[in-house]
Amino acid sequence: MTDTEDSPRNTANPSIFVIQTRSARGAASLDRRLVAFAGEETGSALLNNGQDEWLLARSTQKGIRTKQGSNLAVFTWLARQPGVAKVELLRGKVAMKRWYDNPPAKAGRMDSANPRKPLVDGKQAGWFSWNLKMVGAPEAWDILEWDRIGKPKWQNPSIKVGHLDTGMTEHPCLGFHDGSAGSTGHVLIKEGANVYDADDHGSLPLDPLLSTGTPGHGLRTLSVLCGFQPGLFAGVAPRANIIPFRVTNFVVVNPLINTNNGVAEGIRRATVDKGCRVLSMSLGDPCFPGSATGRAVDRAYEMGVIVVAAAGNVISEVTFPGRYARTIAVGGVSENRRPWAGGSYGSRVDLCAPADEVYRALRDIGGSGRAGYSSKDGDGTSYATTHVSGAAVMWLAHHGKAVDDLYGNTWRRVEAFRHCAQVSAKPGPDWDSSNYGAGILYIPDLLKTSLPDPNSLVKVEDLAADDQA
Q1: φ, ψ dihedrals at 440, nearest 5°
Q2: pTM across the whole model
Q3: Are 289 and 348 in contact (CB under 8 A)?
Q4: pLDDT by residue (tens digit) across 234-244?
Q5: What are the chain's domains?
């Protein structure tokens, strides 16, 4: 067991249990036993971290600790469970850094695209995935105007989304068909940049799909935001205009772990240089944010850029930049409309969206390189974030000039969206609004909600409070 604390100051840092199982069947059996400790929360108590390797959700960890009395007792209890081969407890930033510096290779399994899930002209015909149904995406597509050639209003070229992640991966749902690394019409690759790899600044934002970090994460999240492959797949806002940036190789962007992450630079380029009106950031810092990131978020907020960020996974505390009050922080729910057990929560969460077994695009890593789709292990507030980012695009497109006339390029545009998203959100059963925000994103009602009076909006001043309710 690793139990390293480098100073008393850091004893509040999140601890993480890493569990290795003997088989997938053993992991499934363990997961069923562990979910009971999450109380009213549902979803997966184990988050896949590689072949037969799992991270224990912090909410579940706390439930076990209530019964067992201490982290040491939790460790002992887990180690004795059938099917468990090894348990590690990482505590303190030194231990976490050692682990994250040497992450295991991730599995690259996927299902082939299923032709029984039809789509016609960007609209669903019959079946659609549970996550799209929950947020009302197909109904929202009907509300928005379509031109005579079937182009939806949300594809307005003036509404661009800055996607800050591990970079781009070629996939048919993003418009790649011939293996070329160029713009695909809606994914504006040449407008983006690689601001992560120290020796490759300025190059195209392509994810090299190496075995370390979270390879392919940019593809997976982006597919849920804007993907579209006729007859096979659609994201929340199909073919919305995207400018991708490779700002990290790993979704944990703590500067102590991932020293050369380019989050702040990516925010600056997307907003100041490229004029993106929405930023989608499915990544997080669980411990100490860099001051440059906070300043970049401040500037984006003052410009009226809607910054959507993940609440986080595994640890209970909301991670940065979602923990900044000037972002729209998104938590996760499961198909039964209850909080997903693996998601972070707290007073900083604005609303929730689907985060459990989300159907998304994949590309085989370290194998054949084939492309496909799957919902297996499609868990995380990363996916919840892209649902809200897609909704922000639709909201801007639906109201058009009215938003600009009322709020201009100011913080009021962000607060107007936050207001509309929260007022229209739908609480799940026994909803805890103090930890999971106003409810679950529902895009049709978001679009129908009246725009608030500019004078009624309140500017957020408290940006980076370190406390978390």
Answers
A1: -100, 135
A2: 0.83
A3: no
A4: 999 999 999 99
A5: 8-101 (3.30.70), 119-456 (3.40.50.200)
